[in-house]
Amino acid sequence: MSTIKAFNIFDILDYNNVNLDILTETFNVSFYGKYISKWPEYCISIKNHFGGFQGYLLGKVEGDKNNDDKKNWHGHISAITVAPEYRRQGVARFLMKYIEDVTTKYHNGYYVDLFVRPSNKVAVDMYKNFGYEIYQTIYQYYTGEGTRAEDAYDMRKSMARDPQKLLQRATGKTIKPADLEFN
After folding, report:
1. Is the dihedral of CA 132, 133, 137, 143 positive or negative?
2. Which residues of 52-85 are buried (b: 16+ CB within 10 A; e: fewer)?
3. Order of strands, edge to edge, in the sheet holding 174-175?
4. Distances 17 to 52, 93, 112, 133, 164 between C-alpha atoms, Å
5. What is the pLDDT of residues 117-147, one digit of tens each?
6. How far is CA 126 from CA 23, 96, 120, 149, in A?
7. What does the pLDDT look like over 50-71, one tens digit per residue?
8. What is the pLDDT of residue 24?
9. Is residue 114 within 8 Å of residue 77, measured between CB atoms?
């Protein structure tokens, strides 16, 4: 049995089984605090019956809500991760469906997007299986000490507000991080 609850700042004390995984991007405490305080509807965790983390999601809504010409009001997944022992059990699918529902029902967004390392082929394939497409590539988005910079795929999935799925179609473009519309 699993428990789904709002992600809170104290959760960062207990999520090592998830965050120490090599495929998980980690952030500083202020990052988590900002998301929890500004976009609580997008921040959830799933715990097992012992209180251990199975996974969590941090997201936000961004864009110009009142500009129907831009059509850029959307949900963005900043972090989604599932503990290795809970993968391939539907946890990621639940988290993805959750953010899509929040984006559609609470914010009437056009699409949901996320950034992922192209080298994380398992995640890229999973997102494609969930209906996401590679919209564009972000040149050397991921950097780290002692590691070579890596590009990111900007993957998108259109929501009900974009019924023809125009906003998820691949552009074929490669852009620089500085050219991102939202950070």
Report:
1. positive
2. ebbbbbbbbbbbeeeeeeebbbbbbbbbbbbbee
3. 2-6, 44-48, 53-62, 74-82, 111-116, 147-158, 133-144, 174-175
4. 8, 19, 27, 29, 40
5. 999 999 999 999 999 999 999 999 888 666 6
6. 14, 11, 10, 23
7. 877 788 899 999 999 988 889 9
8. 61
9. yes
